């Protein structure tokens, strides 16, 4: 099975405090530590496990800049066979549809039986996988937490409300967006990264993909981010302050009053 | 402005809470809009929900077909593409069904998609301005969308106060004959119910809930000791279950359990909307987190800015000494 996995390089929220920059045009990007979108690691792990079971190859793809190569390398260190970087000044400022149409152009240049994305990335839209599927006229399932191969088809579980699972049969080729928890993504050590450090990663720009540069990027975006801000949410929590003894004493008082201690 | 449509989800003959939230969102788009509800399915549940919706929506389009008995997003998408005008403004709840439907529907309708909207600022000509959140709620953004050729707008569950006025006096039209070809490449098989665990966190009045801030599997013990001292039960956020440190049945949130405790101690939990969606009944919320900007502090009653790995054992000792 030829599998393509879409991955995104995102600021690592475990490593950074995300703050709005001075004029609200962006988040503060100086000193940000980036990593692979959490969901995408699950997608790559799932692809590797499927390949190991039924044969074929795993290609990881991203739309990004030169620095995005590092996330492709990380996923190749996990076990993906190939990387593909879609990179062009014209792609900057793409909205979700722009990203999906670039991925579509790349899919059409290859031959894939299965395309995986993450369920969600840092912008929190959960849109790219579903859009890509519709553009390709492939069937789609979101929030997938189980995949079984059955000849020419897949049986997939979708996670729905309450942790229940919706089982579906889906025809190939298809696009699935992967939910966290479907597997346990393998650990990637420095050694693994070093092994793929010098592997050539092909780059495609607008001309290579045959896309109209004015249809993607900021020029083609129908959805535009105007600014970033931190909403005023009213009072928020009463913060307990003082020494640890003082805080624990206050908290115990409150817990007693609210029925939190038995 | 073009006509506004809302897709209604329901279960056992009862419309989801989002059905009244979508009206509220529609009125923020266009205060005078006559909003149309789309209700699909089959049988008595469908009829009941369609009738109920007529109180809130000016018009209800009902589609009664076996193919729609279970809301398979691909089948529903085909239906919507067959029956909606090209410039329709479609509102969908951003739940597990809406996430399945919305992005692809926008492509097929050749319209603009805006995901997970938490507020609507207004419409200026063909441009809609909304508020979204990024980085799990740590920052918000104003986003504009060109809706002049139609739009699919996914509305975050719980973000809009439900419109309870029920004064629309709408009519129900059975449009089943117009549904068109609904053939899909994905087939619904069955629902597998979530497993029941050894403890039922929904029955506990006091929950000590741990999130990714607990950092390591070994540290779960710290929370267990506190819970023991308090006479509470340990629950958790999703990453703890994904890491297999605790059972799925301990997860609080939209894809886990809905809990109604008296006291909820959120320890090293950032406060994502999916997590908060599982906490009902306005408990007394104590947030313990080392990042004072974590969104959980906005919803908590009491907050402590501290490292939980240091603080929780201190609290346990203090309680044990009482
Ligand atoms: C400088 C800058 C300017 C931007 N300007 C705009 C703007 O004007 N308007 C706007 O709407 N957005 C803008 N964006 C957002 C950007 O285009 C988003 O990447 C896009 O909307 C999709 O991200 P998401 O988080 O919504 O993805 P989701 O749909 O939530 O991600 C789901 C999955 O899709 C796949 N995916 C997402 N992004 C990529 C990618 N780049 N490459 C490969 N796979 C991917 C991954 O598998 C991911 O797990 C801007 C971003 C940057 C950095
Ligand atoms: C469809 C869908 C359904 C979902 N359903 C659920 C659900 O049911 N339940 C759920 O919980 N999530 C759910 N999620 C995931 C959700 O979006 C968040 O990713 C998740 O809730 C984050 O968990 P967290 O707060 O533990 O982790 P994070 O967001 O990583 O937050 C960790 C927090 O701990 C703090 N911290 C770190 N170290 C320490 C320390 N030593 N001391 C004190 N504080 C510390 C940090 O400041 C941070 O605020 C769902 C997501 C999707 C897409």
Structure in words:
The complex is a heterodimer of chains A (262) and B (322). Chain A has 262 residues and is of the alpha/beta class. Chain A has one domain: HUPs (Rossmann fold), CATH 3.40.50. Chain A is 30% helix and 26% strand. In chain A, β4, α2 (69-78) and β5 (82-86) form a beta-alpha-beta unit. In chain A, α3 (96-109) packs across α4. The longest helix of chain A is centred in the N-terminal third of the chain and has 17 residues, at 38-54. Chain B has two domains: 4-178, Rossmann fold; 201-321, TPP-binding domain (Rossmann fold). Helix content of chain B is 26%, strand content 29%. Chain B has helices at 18-29, 43-53, 73-83, 96-108, 220-230, 238-242, 273-276, 296-299, 308-320; strands spanning 4-7, 10-11, 14-15, 36-41, 59-64, 89-93, 112-117, 119-124, 127-134, 139-146, 151-155, 171-174, 186-192, 206-210, 233-236, 263-267, 284-289, 302-305. In chain B, α3 packs across α4. The termini of chain B are far apart. Classes of the chains: A alpha/beta (262), B alpha/beta (322). At the A-B interface, α3, α4, β7, β8 and β9 of A face α4, β7, β9, β10 and β13 of B. One flavin-adenine dinucleotide sits between chains B (96, 136, 211-213, 215, 237-239, 251-256, 268-270, 272, 274-275, 278, 289-291, 294, 307-309) and A (14, 119-120, 143).
Q: Which descriptors apply to this entry?
A:
heterodimer, A: 262 residues, alpha/beta, Rossmann fold, 9-stranded mixed β-sheet, two-stranded antiparallel sheet, 8 helices, globular, B: 322 residues, 7-stranded parallel β-sheet, 5-stranded parallel β-sheet, 9 helices, 18 strands, elongated, binds flavin-adenine dinucleotide
């Amino acid at each position: 099975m030829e599998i393509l996995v879409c991955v995104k390089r995102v600021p690592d929220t475990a490593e950074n405090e995300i703050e709005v920059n001075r004029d609200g045009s962006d988040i503060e990007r100086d000193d940000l530590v980036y990593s692979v979108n959490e969901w995408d690691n699950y997608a790559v792990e799932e692809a590797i496990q499927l390949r190991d079971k039924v044969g074929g190859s795993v290609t990881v793809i991203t739309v990004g800049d030169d620095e995005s190569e590092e996330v492709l390398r990380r996923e190749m260190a996990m076990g993906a066979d190939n990387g593909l970087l879609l990179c062009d000044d014209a792609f900057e400022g793409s909205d979700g549809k722009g990203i999906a149409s670039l991925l579509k152009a790349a899919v059409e240049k290859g031959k894939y039986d299965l395309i995986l994305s993450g369920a969600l990335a840092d912008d929190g839209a959960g849109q790219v996988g579903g859009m890509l599927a519709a553009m390709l006229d492939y069937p789609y399932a979101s929030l997938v937490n189980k995949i079984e191969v059955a000849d020419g088809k897949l049986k997939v579980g979708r996670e729905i409300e309450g942790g229940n699972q919706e089982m579906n049969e889906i025809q190939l080729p298809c696009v699935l967006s992967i939910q966290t928890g479907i597997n346990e993504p393998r650990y990637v050590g420095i050694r693994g990264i070093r092994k793929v450090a010098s592997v050539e990663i092909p780059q495609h720009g607008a001309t290579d993909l045959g896309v109209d540069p004015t249809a993607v990027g900021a020029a083609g975006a129908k959805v535009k981010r105007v600014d970033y801000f931190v909403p005023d949410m009213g009072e928020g929590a009463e913060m307990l302050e003082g020494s640890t003894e003082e805080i624990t004493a206050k908290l115990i008082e409150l817990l007693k009053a609210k029925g939190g201690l038995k | 402005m073009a006509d506004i449509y809302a897709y209604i989800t329901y279960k056992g003959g009862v419309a989801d809470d989002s059905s009244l939230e979508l009206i509220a969102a529609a009125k923020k788009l266009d205060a005078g809009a006559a909003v149309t509800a789309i209700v699909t399915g089959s049988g008595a549940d469908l009829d009941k929900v369609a009738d109920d919706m007529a109180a809130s929506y000016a018009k209800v389009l009902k589609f009664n077909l076996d193919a729609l008995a279970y809301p398979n997003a691909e089948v529903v998408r085909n239906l919507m593409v067959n029956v909606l005008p090209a410039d329709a403004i479609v509102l969908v709840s951003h739940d597990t069904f809406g996430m399945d439907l919305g992005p692809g529907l926008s492509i097929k309708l050749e319209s603009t998609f805006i995901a997970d909207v938490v507020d609507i600022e207004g419409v200026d000509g063909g441009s809609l301005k909304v508020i979204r959140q990024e980085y799990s709620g740590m920052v918000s953004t104003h986003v504009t969308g060109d809706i002049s050729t139609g739009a699919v707008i996914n509305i975050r569950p719980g973000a809009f106060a439900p419109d309870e006025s029920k004064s629309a006096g709408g009519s129900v039209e059975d449009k089943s004959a117009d549904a068109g070809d609904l053939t899909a490449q994905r087939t619904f098989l069955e629902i597998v119910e979530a497993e029941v665990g050894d403890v039922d966190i929904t029955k506990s009045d006091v929950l000590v809930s741990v999130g990714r801030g607990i950092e390591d599997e070994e540290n779960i013990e710290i929370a267990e000791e506190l819970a023991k001292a308090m006479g509470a039960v340990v629950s958790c956020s999703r990453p703890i279950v994904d890491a297999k440190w605790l059972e799925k049945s301990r997860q609080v949130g939209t894809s886990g359990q809905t809990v109604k405790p008296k006291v909820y101690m959120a320890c090293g939990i950032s406060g994502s909307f999916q997590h908060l969606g599982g906490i009902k009944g306005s408990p007394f919320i104590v947030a313990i987190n080392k990042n004072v900007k974590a969104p959980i502090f906005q919803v908590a009653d009491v907050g402590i800015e501290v490292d939980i790995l240091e603080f929780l054992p201190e609290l346990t000792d203090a309680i044990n000494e009482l």
